[in-house]
Amino acid sequence: RELVCKESKKTFKATIAMSQEFPLGIESLLNVLEVIAPFKHFNKLREFVQMKLPPGFPVKLDIPVFPTITATVTFQEFRYDEFDESTFTIPDDYKEDPSRFPDL
């Protein structure tokens, strides 16, 4: 049987606004996107950010996730804060629901 190979390419238009004064680096954004990327529509956003971008931090991203839907991510305000460790303590009576987020 003869091997049939097909290639299809899709192009999309994305918009990005970069800031060299923003106090975070692109690595921080990639870490956040890695956490939410299992939701397949955020994966496109993560792949877009991993491309070679101009210097700075992307303070606004507009990227299509469907032909009629565009995801917009905007960083309007940022500040470093100190949090008490108890903020991140899991309560003793916490029970994980295995049916919630089954793809993670």
From TrEMBL:
Subcellular locations according to the entry: Endomembrane system; Endoplasmic reticulum
Name of one Pfam family that matches: ANKRD13_C
Annotated Ankyrin repeat domain residues: 5-86
Gene Ontology CC annotations of this record: endoplasmic reticulum
An annotated Gene Ontology molecular function: signaling receptor binding
Keyword terms: ANK repeat, Endoplasmic reticulum, Membrane, Repeat
Keyword Endoplasmic reticulum part of the UniProt annotation: yes
GO biological process, one term: protein retention in ER lumen
Location, primary (coarse class): membrane
Domain of life of the native organism: Eukaryota
PANTHER family referenced in this protein's UniProt entry, alphabetically: ANKYRIN REPEAT DOMAIN-CONTAINING PROTEIN 13, ANKYRIN REPEAT DOMAIN-CONTAINING PROTEIN 13C
Protein name in the entry: Ankyrin repeat domain-containing protein
